[in-house]
Request: fold
Amino acid sequence: MTAGSKRYHESDWLGRIAFGHGRADAAAGLYAKLLNAEIDAAITSQPPFAIPKAYEWHVLREEPFVVLAPASLKARDPHKVLAQEPFIRLDRRVFAGRLIDDYLRKARIKPKDRYELDGLELIAVMVDRGLGVSLLPDWAPPWPEGLSLRKLALPNRSLVRRTGLLWNRASLRARLVRAFLEQAQYALKRRRHPPASGRHLNTAIAGYSRQSDEELA
Reply:
C-alpha cells in the first residue's frame, strides 16, 4: 500500500466514526451527546459518577491537580494558598470543576471565590496577571506562552483528571472505535518513548494498515 493510498484509507474508515472531541471542559456536553446517540465515541475527561454498563471507558492520560499561583507568591502550603488568596474557580458545571469542588469540601477549605469560569488556559492567564490562584489539572503542553507561574503539589496526590475514550459497546462502529483506540495508545507511547529510527515507525504503520483492512472486512 502506498503512502498516498494509506492516507485515503485512514480517512475513509475514520470518516465512518462520529467522534466528539474538544477541550476537556466540554466533557459534560460530549457525554450528553453520546448518551443521545448523536456521536459514536468521545475523547473526554472521566465523569465524576458511575458510567453506565452499556458504555466502555479506557483511560489515555492522567493529570494531577495542582495549585496554580503567580510566580511572585512566596507561600508554599497549597491548602493555605487556596484558603487565603482570591480564588479563580473552574466552572462547577464541568467534570473537572466538580472534582475540584468535592476536594475543597472534603479538605474543609472555603476559598475566597473571586471568579468562576470555563476555560483552563484563560484561568492560567488570569493567575499570571495576579488576579488570584486556582486549582487545576496540570494538563499536557502547550500552555499559553510567556506565563510566570508556580505549581504547588497537593498533599493528596490522588486527585487526578483522567482523559480517555468513551463509547457505546453496542455501537455498529465499535470495532472501528477500538481500532482508533489502539492507534491512540500507540501515538501516546511514541510521544513518551520516541523510536530510535524511522524504521520502527514504518514497521508499525505497515502493521496498522493490515489491521485496518481486517477491521473493515
User: Anything to note?
Assistant: The chain is about 40% helix and 25% strand. The helical segments are 3-14, 27-35, 78-84, 95-106, 120-128, 174-192, 198-216. Residues 86 and 151 are 16 Å apart (CA to CA).
